[in-house]
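Tip: read the tokens left to right.
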């Protein structure tokens, strides 16, 4: 009985803990009304990695708490991205039209453009999963891609 409670609490902590870490970042940005110092690329990495991890789960069911963690992280990053766009610095590549990235990737002026990209990303992954989802190799590649994306998380903050 006690072991079941401990297991349940650990699962809840595992699911809620990582997304909750970004609440402090969001609070700080809202309080200062400035997102300077936080790279939106962190949101990109976590969104793409967790979306990919959800598709991986469809092919290889891992612990449900980790799936819930991924879903909560997607919601947390969408909220944080919205806050970052709302409180971005006045002098930013989007406002100046001076992005050096191809297609101004992840430096778009409106939140809607980010959502459109993410919808296209989900659609592409869904189509690929429908076609290749029965292949163990494809499912394994999804897992490696999700893990590989998430392992690049420190890079945007280091570059900044």
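Filled-in amino acids:
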């Amino acid at each position: 009985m006690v072991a079941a409670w401990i297991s349940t609490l650990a699962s809840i902590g595992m699911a809620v803990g990582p997304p909750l870490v970004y609440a402090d970042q969001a609070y700080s940005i809202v309080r200062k009304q400035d997102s300077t110092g936080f790279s939106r690329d962190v949101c990109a990495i976590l969104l793409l990695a967790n979306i990919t991890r959800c598709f991986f789960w469809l092919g290889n069911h891992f612990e449900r708490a980790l799936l819930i963690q991924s879903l909560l992280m997607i919601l947390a990053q969408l909220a944080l991205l919205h806050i970052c766009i709302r409180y971005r610095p006045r002098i930013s590549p989007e406002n100046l039209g001076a992005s050096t990235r191809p297609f101004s990737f992840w430096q778009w002026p409106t939140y809607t453009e980010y959502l459109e990209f993410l919808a296209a990303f989900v659609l592409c992954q869904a189509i690929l999963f429908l076609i290749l989802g029965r292949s163990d190799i494809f499912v394994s590649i999804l897992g490696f891609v999700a893990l590989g994306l998430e392992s690049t998380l420190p890079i945007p903050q280091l570059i900044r």
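Helices lie at 2-32, 40-59, 64-86, 93-96, 111-132, 136-151, 154-159. The CA atoms of residues 54 and 67 lie 6 Å apart.
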